[in-house]
Amino acid sequence: MRILLAEDEIHAGEYLVKGLGENGLLVDWVRNGLDVIHQAASIDYDLVILDVGLPGLDGWEVLRRLRPAQTMPVLFLTARDRVEDRVKGLELGANDYLIKPFAFSELLARVHVQLRRGKQQELEMLSLADLEVHLLRRRVERSGQRIDLTAKEYALLLLFLRRKGEVLSRTLIAEQVWDMNFDSDTNVVEVAIRRLRAKIDEPFDTPLLHTVRGFGYVMEQRP
What we know:
This protein has helices at residues 10-22, 33-42, 59-66, 83-92, 104-124, 151-162, 170-178, 188-200, and strands at residues 2-6, 26-30, 47-50, 74-78, 96-99, 126-128, 131-134, 139-142, 145-147, 209-212, 216-219. By secondary structure, it is of the alpha/beta class. It folds into 2 domains: 2-123, Rossmann fold, CATH 3.40.50.2300; 125-219, Winged helix-like DNA-binding domain superfamily/Winged helix DNA-binding domain (Arc Repressor Mutant, subunit A, Orthogonal Bundle), CATH 1.10.10.10. The strands form 3 sheets. Strands 2-1-3-4-5 form a 5-stranded parallel β-sheet, sandwiched between helices. It has a 4-stranded antiparallel β-sheet with strand order 6-7-8-9. The chain has a two-stranded antiparallel ribbon with strand order 10-11. Helix 6 crosses helix 7 (170-178) and helix 6 packs across helix 8 (188-200). The longest helix has 21 residues, at 104-124. InterPro entries: CheY-like_superfamily, CusR-like, OmpR/PhoB-type_DNA-bd, Sig_transdc_resp-reg_receiver, WalR-like, WH-like_DNA-bd_sf.
């Protein structure tokens, strides 16, 4: 499980990284709001722990930008203890809200709850329009018709469905699916996109995988 921690106070950040790490969690720690946006766009995190009082972009604005494109759980960990602040955080799309100072055991329990919920939701199904991916069986269907994909095509489809509605660059796709630095001389991404389209789009009336010229690709249902 990989967590993104956004905390600008050094002592608190070191304490959380150490404590969560000792409990088997991999933690990436950033100290400003812009880095949260960048990291969340590059890595598929299982949970974001977010302070409100971040430099650059505060936690409210970070969450506004993360939602609705990013669906990973977000837990606010902040000294903002007013009821209005808690309500605001939840209305913006946070999954939980914990006030500082806190007991680490309570934070850890809340983290595990969010990780379990996220895992349970992911284990069920990813879908867009009539396209469905049944994750436990690794079965892909569109309009009830089974679609056979290679391992890389399947990984590529999962990336698009987990980030549906978000334009993904060729560089990001290469890093996430092939774990490689993008080389402008290779067309591995274009070839994979073309093969995936041939299976999930071309036999059907409505395309779901679209090219955004000059930027990359996006999976979404268009009118």
